[in-house]
Amino acid sequence: MHNIRAHLIVEGRVQGVFFRDTTRMEAVGLGLTGWVKNRFDGSVEVVAEGPKDKVDQLVQWCYHGPPYARVTGVHRIDEDFTGEFNAFMIVF
């Protein structure tokens, strides 16, 4: 399976509910690289790279997130895989 890159904007009640940390844990568990961060508009942004099936699993997880999150939308843009990341991290 080939590697892909997905760029997501996750909307809803996704800040202050451990969305970033649990996204990082999910991504690490799936063997993905990239980053997650809070945006000023209250959404969360995610860039994930890795095998297509694993990236798709993370995207599906983002539709509900951790228990206290209330996701109202996930916007996905598929981008060219770059391989630029060594880990999956929270960025500020």
Helix content: 25-40%
How many strand segments?
Answer: 5
- What is the ordering of alpha helices and beta strands? EHEEHEE
Distance between the termini: 32 Å
Which structural class do the helices and strands define? Answer: alpha+beta
Main-sheet strand order equals 4-1-3-2-5
Largest sheet: 5 strands, mixed
Highest CATH level, the class: Alpha Beta
Total separate domains: 1
Report the sheet-strand fraction. Answer: 35-45%
Backbone shape: globular
**Integer average pLDDT:** 97
CATH architecture: 2-Layer Sandwich
Question: In a nutshell, what does this entry contain?
Answer:
The chain is α+β, with helices and mostly antiparallel strands and 92 residues long.
Description:
By secondary structure, the chain is of the alpha+beta class. It has a single domain (3-90), classed as Alpha-Beta Plaits, CATH 3.30.70. Helices cover 25% and strands 41% of the residues. It is built from two helices and five strands, in the order βαββαββ. It has a five-stranded mixed β-sheet with strand order 4-1-3-2-5, covered by helices on one side. The longest helix has 12 residues, at 19-30. It starts with a strand and ends with a strand. The model has no long low-confidence stretch (mean pLDDT 97).
